[in-house]
């Protein structure tokens, strides 16, 4: 142990320790400056703004800045074709020379899509399906049907369209919906020979309205008075009237022959 302690006091030991320290420092300096050179520490540039430019304009700007680029495309119907709609990294981001900038371009050609099945769907449900298929809801019109706000027919460009047909993305789809009222015309009920209460029940079931009541002779028993005439009358030339039509009647206590 005493010999080791004596060795630590020698000039040779001190020289070896000093040499080792110098070697470590030199190696660290070499590694530090080599890394700075390799990464070009402190050197770089701000990414230029190319969003909103045409693809050709964006390429010129990036190449002038010494940057690479890669391109992807999407289709946004409300944007002009060939326009840069996104970039990564964002504008004014500090990057190294020769960095790759990723561009998203709005496709120049309108893609197609399959028309979804919306028949007999409610208007709200059909609109959600249309928009999720990247289509637009156009005009809505109504026709007589017992279903209210239910899709009876869809059309594109004035022509009926069925599920599965191929149409361009962004197309306007017009819908024909049920009005919930059924047919606009109903059969004229036969009221002659009925009492007032029976006539009211029949008219209500047909969505018609009791109009003017004309009394034929003295009415001594209104509950049993019989309808002898009605206007409009059910005849071969007239069998239907519009919903809500007023039906005029003539009441009499006289028995029909």
From TrEMBL:
Domain PASTA positions: 41-107, 182-253
Highest taxon, organism lineage: Bacteria
CDD domains in the cross-refs: PASTA_pknB (cd06577)
Keyword Membrane tagged: yes
Any Pfam family matching the protein: PASTA
Keyword Transmembrane helix annotated: yes
Keyword terms: Membrane, Transmembrane, Transmembrane helix
InterPro entries the record matches: PASTA_dom (IPR005543)
Identification of the protein by name: PASTA domain-containing protein
Organism: Pedobacter fastidiosus
